[in-house]
Specification:
The complex is a heterodimer of chains A (about 425) and B (about 210). With about 425 residues, chain A is mainly α. Chain A is built from 17 helices and 2 strands. Chain B is α+β, with helices and mostly antiparallel strands and about 210 residues long. The longest helix of chain B is centred in the middle third of the chain and has 25 residues. The chains are: A mainly alpha (about 425), B alpha+beta (about 210).
Chain lengths: ~425, ~210
């Protein structure tokens, strides 16, 4: 009897392409990040950002009266919470509003290119016509010209298109980076029962405004209302009317007046600290997702602009794989990454909102009854059989059976000798 | 080696046959059907019947046949393709350059209120044409006199929009010699565009930067 031992089959070629694509995308994203950082540092666009309508969180005024160290600390903490929440919302708004590379460098660069073309039109046009005529003659008069002349000809035409219409090209590339998050947000909002139908019909901005407003109310509005009045009565009031409502409450309810003038410093410090701790992880997650989306937008912008020069290479069959690998697949992956970052940001906001709502609901149920609930929990823990709570200890070494499993990665074929 | 067949003895030698036309065999042979081709005479001048009189028709026909054969041959086809492709591409490039974008000022979309933060909102201003009982008419301005008019003129000329369709909405004085003007242009079919135009005061008056 003889036995032949074969090693497991090596991975197929198709499987090797996946990490290569991931590596290309990672390298492109790193390049886009560096480019964005350089552009941010140089800041070629010094004008103000495109104007947008003011949302409620921008009209909110974080004012907390009261003297003393604890009140000062509570003021700092709640302002930091508001700053964090505002920053995370604005980063997400920027993803839906503009493509960062287009805004920082694209518009000015395109205007500069158009002005340069106007100044040097005669030599540019002459050189382009000469190149086009030479390439056409080369490709049609030679016996076996191949496809290189056609590639070069289409690239010349693409470059001419970019040079003669730079502003339209950059605007189109920037719009590709913002249209994907907008469409995805609208589609996700239709499936989300928490978003009202009126907001869904109003477009992506209305959806984002609704979601961001609830996020702001949960993490800033409610703690601020507690710090000002001891309750959440001011949380959902319109920002412009909050001062009037607070004044009215202070005049009528003495307890609210005590909170408003800062006689509950220790309570304020605890509430503000917990609010800050609650908001930090969600705000950081939203900012990180916005950064990822911005890098993807910059990459999409660059790849779309490179399209008129890269797409003609596909005419040559020998270069089609390279076009796929270095241009088309990274473009699709960047768009997918942008969509994934948008969806993840929406999920983070919804999870934060739902968590906070559940927390508030539990607090409402347990208000005034915390002591009996705590006592019941302690008693349960004390008298619950320990065997239900104990878990089996984790083995320190692999049992013999697993070693055999590891060895089974060798395929064994047996046969008669 | 092959041998020639011998003639039969006693047979008279073969005589030449008489001609069918009845000519004498010793006379030189003449063509009965056509005259020998005459040489082309030298041209006596350009006349409408030049080709006919000079008998160039066969030559022209031959040249035409040669040109047609060359045009329908491989070289001709290639040449035709080259010419056609070149004409199309030259037309495309020329159209692209002729309709190329002009460098425009950095424009920002107009919206109701800015997003600069709380407490910085401004009351929406009325259209300049509504002030002073103008009933929608533009305020009479001399071209080049005011920075707003200079900016509107520049925008209209740069973008090929009628001057009456460009209005200056607002202006910010950046310094004593520099003003930023917000212009609104109606490009037709509901396309309203705004742009910020910087105008600088020079020795010859206000000019776009």
């Amino acid at each position: 009897m003889s036995m032949t031992i074969h090693r497991t089959r090596p991975p197929a070629r198709g499987r090797r392409a996946a990490p290569a694509t991931a590596r290309v995308l990672a390298a492109y994203l790193a390049g886009a990040f560096l480019l964005l950082a350089v552009v941010f540092a140089l800041r070629p666009a010094e004008g103000p950002a495109p104007a947008t309508p003011a949302w409620d969180y921008q009209r909110e005024t974080v004012v907390l009266e009261g003297g003393g160290a604890l009140n000062a600390y509570a003021r700092w903490a709640v302002r930091t919470t508001a700053w964090l929440a505002r920053g995370s919302i604005e980063r997400q708004r920027d993803v839906h509003r503009l493509s960062p590379l287009d805004y920082l460098a694209g518009e000015d660069g395109a205007a500069g290119l158009a002005a340069w073309r106007e100044r040097h039109r005669l030599p540019l046009e002459g050189a382009t016509l000469a190149a086009v005529a030479a390439l056409a003659a080369w490709g049609t008069l030679r016996r076996r010209p191949g496809r290189l002349w056609l590639v070069a000809l289409l690239m010349v035409v693409g470059a001419t298109l970019l040079v003669t219409r730079p502003q339209a090209a950059t605007a189109l590339a920037g719009r590709a980076g913002t249209a994907v998050p907008d469409q995805l947000l609208r589609a996700a909002a239709t499936a989300d029962p928490g978003v009202p139908a009126a907001a869904t019909a109003g477009g992506a901005e209305a959806v984002q405004r609704t979601v961001a407003g609830r996020y702001w109310t949960a993490f800033v509005g409610e703690p601020l209302s507690r710090l000002q009045t001891g309750t959440t009565v001011l949380a959902t009031a319109p920002p412009a009317a909050k001062a009037g409502v607070l004044g009215s409450l202070r005049a009528r309810v003495t307890a609210v007046g005590d909170w408003a003038v800062g006689r509950h410093g220790p309570e304020r410090a605890v509430i503000a600290t917990l609010a800050l701790a609650y908001a930090v992880p969600f705000a950081l997650a939203l900012v990180a997702l916005a950064m990822l989306a911005s890098c993807a937008q910059a990459l999409v912008w660059l790849l779309v602009l490179a399209g008129p020069l890269a797409a003609p290479l596909a005419v040559d069959p020998a270069r089609r794989r390279a076009v796929l690998r270095w241009w088309l697949v990274p473009l699709a992956a960047a768009l997918a990454l942008l969509a994934a970052a948008t969806l993840a940001a929406l999920a983070v906001i919804r999870v934060a909102e739902l968590t906070h709502a559940a927390d508030a609901y539990l607090g409402m149920l347990l208000a005034g009854s915390t002591a009996p609930v705590l006592a019941a929990a302690l008693a349960l823990r004390r008298y619950w059989p320990r065997r239900h709570r104990r878990r089996p200890p984790r083995p320190r070494a692999l049992p013999a059976r697993q070693t055999a499993t590891a060895a089974s990665s060798f395929a064994v074929r047996g046969g008669a000798a | 080696m092959p041998t020639r067949p011998k003639r039969a003895t006693g047979q008279p030698p073969e005589r030449p046959r008489p001609r069918a036309t009845g000519q004498h065999p010793d006379r030189p042979r003449r063509r009965a059907t056509s005259q020998p081709p005459e040489r082309p005479r030298p041209s006596s001048g350009l006349t409408p019947h030049f080709a006919i009189r000079t008998n160039w028709t066969p030559r022209l026909l031959a040249a035409w046949r040669w040109a047609a054969a060359a045009a329908t041959g491989e070289t001709g086809r290639r040449l035709g393709r080259a010419v056609g492709l070149t004409v199309v591409l030259v037309a495309l490039v020329t159209v692209l350059y002729d309709h190329g974008e002009a460098p425009r000022a950095v424009a920002a979309p107009t919206v109701g209120t800015p997003a600069a933060g709380p407490g910085v909102q401004q009351a929406p201003g009325k259209d300049p044409g509504e002030h002073g009982g103008l009933r929608g008419r533009d305020r009479a301005t001399q071209v080049g006199e005011r920075p707003a008019a200079v900016a509107a003129d520049w925008y209209a000329a740069r973008h090929g929009v009628a001057r009456a369709r460009v209005k200056a909405l607002q202006q910010d004085r950046l310094s004593a010699r520099e003003v930023r003007v917000l212009v609104l242009a109606d490009h037709g079919r509901g396309r309203l565009r705004t742009a910020l135009v910087r105008v600088r005061l020079g020795p010859d008056g206000w000019r776009v930067r």
